[in-house]
Amino acid sequence: MTKVLVSDPIDQAGIDILSQVAQVDVRTGLSPEQLVGCIGDYDGLMIRSGTQVTAEVIEAAARLRIIGRAGVGVDNVDVPAATRRGVIVVNSPEGNTIAAAEHALALMLSLSRHVPHAHASTMAGGWDRKTYVGNELYKKTLGVVGLGKIGSHVARVARALGMDVAAYDPFISAERAQLLQVRLLPLPQLFAEADYVSLHLPRTPDTENLVNAALLATMKPTARLVNCARGGIIDEQALADAVENRVIAGAAIDVYAKEPLAADSPLRLVKERLILTPHLGASTEEAQENVAIDVAEQIRDVLLGLPARSAVNIPGLTPEVMELLKPHLQLAETLGLLLSQLAGGQISELEVRLQGEFASHPAQPLVVAALKGILSAALGDSINYVNASLEAKERGIHVLEVKDDASRDFAGGSLQLSSRSPRGNHSVTGAVFTDGELRVTTIDEFPVNVTPSRHMLFTRHRDMPGIIGQLGSLLGEHNVNIASMQVGRRIVRGDAVMVLSLDDPIPPSLLAVIHDINGIQAAHPVTL
Ligand SMILES: NC(=O)C1=CN([C@@H]2O[C@H](COP(=O)(O)OP(=O)(O)OC[C@H]3O[C@@H](n4cnc5c(N)ncnc54)[C@H](O)[C@@H]3O)[C@@H](O)[C@H]2O)C=CC1
Ligand SMILES: O=C(O)C(=O)COP(=O)(O)O
User: Fold this and answer.
1) Mutation test residue for ligand 2: of 72, 98, 288, 384, the one with most atoms within 8 Å of CB
2) Tens of pLDDT, residues 360-417
3) Is 259 a catalytic residue?
4) Residue located nearest, by CA, to atom 11 of ligand 2
5) What is the C-alpha separation between 465 and 488, in angstroms, rounded?
6) Which residue among the candidates 65, 200, 279, 455 is catalytic per the annotation?
7) Which ligand is nearest to the CA of 199?
8) Do 72 and 382 touch, CB atoms closer than 8 A?
9) How far is the C-alpha of 303 from the C-alpha of 296, rounded, in Å?
């Protein structure tokens, strides 16, 4: 009997769809231990943001074929662990967009007119018409950080309210911003100019604590901050201090670094000018019906052997073709992520070259997997195999697909990604060895032979005595353990590349020191 576990509150419409193909057990509020103890009985799992699907849970899920996230963010799912186990992860990229946008706007208006505090004061018997004098949004400047689906809708409504809208989004083209009648600004300028800042970007290693004490201090003392995106993007202690000390005029927060928000959180001590809601951005009847139906249909389809339309980690292909291409898709995505970090930002052209036996595979899934890897730094959970091509097109990435079956560099063929960007051209090549292991075989013009690992460091340098030793010693001094090291060069004492697989991430402060080593021309930390 096919069984599906629903471990967070899901609209009945979704339960009804699942019941067409499976026994559905609704068990919310499970402890991590309880979830690990029961997940082995289930073929499908449906969640929202409350359930933590850890590697331990996935390890225990012997029968699990699909995890359905009824919403956008899958940061509560160990997606790499699911992919390694061949468990499809799907989400609903658009089902709660309007709900989240409207909650951000509701918080902006509530902040401006002190609604919650005025309500509490009146309910307590007060009649205070002085303390709660507010401000208008009309003709004020809104700064949107992350001009994606939700950020774009917030911008549209804000403009209808008579606001001037600016945005910071390093991955959005000027044409798209112009279409939305939004000015693109660098982040520091946006925070300095805005009367309101609203965050609508994913939580990624690059956005962790993006809004810190220093950035908050650049805001106008009359400015207000709203976060309906993800916790962890704002340093919560810094925010509590900034509101308490009137560095900014107020803030409204819906999401938190760790949820539920701790009882002793510094945010709970701020009595005025701060509004807190318990992750309600998607909590409307309409959104919950949307996401429940969207994801339940995908779970049903996958359990019936059909492709999923919003697969986060595996393309919408039949499971049989998937099984055949899985290592090749993982290689393409890994090379894409690697290339995006070597290119350092907006890629304008991508060539995907299928060489040797690779040329016999369908190209589109590999192109899509490469694009997913390239865009994953920008889009986090929102990028998947279904929307990667569209998102790339919207970001002005021109894709070239080349099949070169004459190439004989590796028995199983190889895949080469080459990029053009304002910061130069780069290329990476990889192959899938007979044991199924992925290998990076060239970086730019240099031959290497590296197994991708979670933390890596790539350097371009002059081939000279001592440089390898210096880098090794420096990493050791900062407790960064080297798993493997490879040097690629064309001529002795010429230009060279070094590839290190690391057990630990490179702290930003260490990267600056690495750049200062004599002979180092470039250094790129990569997290896969
Ligand atoms: N509070 C809630 O209940 C909800 C929260 N969310 C969260 O809202 C966020 C946005 O969701 P969507 O608009 O659907 O995603 P989206 O993918 O459509 O838009 C995200 C945008 O952020 C941009 N971005 C990525 N890194 C950036 C950076 N470092 N600086 C500036 N911009 C950056 C991307 O280019 C993209 O345009 C997601 O993190 C999602 O999890 C979504 C729904 C409900
Ligand atoms: O869709 C998202 O990313 C959300 O944050 C919504 O979270 P929820 O489903 O309301 O727990």
Assistant:
1) 72
2) 888 888 998 899 899 987 877 667 776 788 788 888 899 999 998 887 777 778 999 9
3) yes
4) 49
5) 15
6) 279
7) 1
8) yes
9) 11
Strands (E) across 85-210 are located at 88-91, 141-145, 164-168, 183-184, 196-199
Contact 370, 331 (CB under 8 A): no
| Cα–Cα distance measured from residue 518 to residue 470, given in angstroms and rounded to the nearest whole number | 9
Dist. CA 182–CA 164, nearest whole Å: 8
Interface predicted TM-score (ipTM): 0.99
Q: Distances in Å between the alpha carbon of 77 and those of 38, 41, 81, 91, 385?
A: 17, 19, 9, 11, 17
- Kindly give the distance from the C-alpha atom of residue 18 to the centroid of ligand 2, in angstroms, as a whole number: 20
Query: Amino acid identity of 97?
Result: T
In a mutational test of the pocket of ligand 1, which residue from 175, 200, 310 has the highest number of ligand atoms less than 8 Å from its CB? 200
How far apart are the C-alpha atoms of 231 and 208, rounded to whole Å? 9
One-letter-per-residue 3-state SS of 24-59:
EEECCCCCHHHHHHHHHHCCEEEECCCCCECHHHHH
Strands 66-69 and 164-168: unpaired
Q: Using DSSP, state whether 466 is helix, strand or coil.
A: coil
Report the atom number in ligand 1 closest to the C-alpha of 172: 35
Q: Is the pTM of this model over 0.80?
A: no
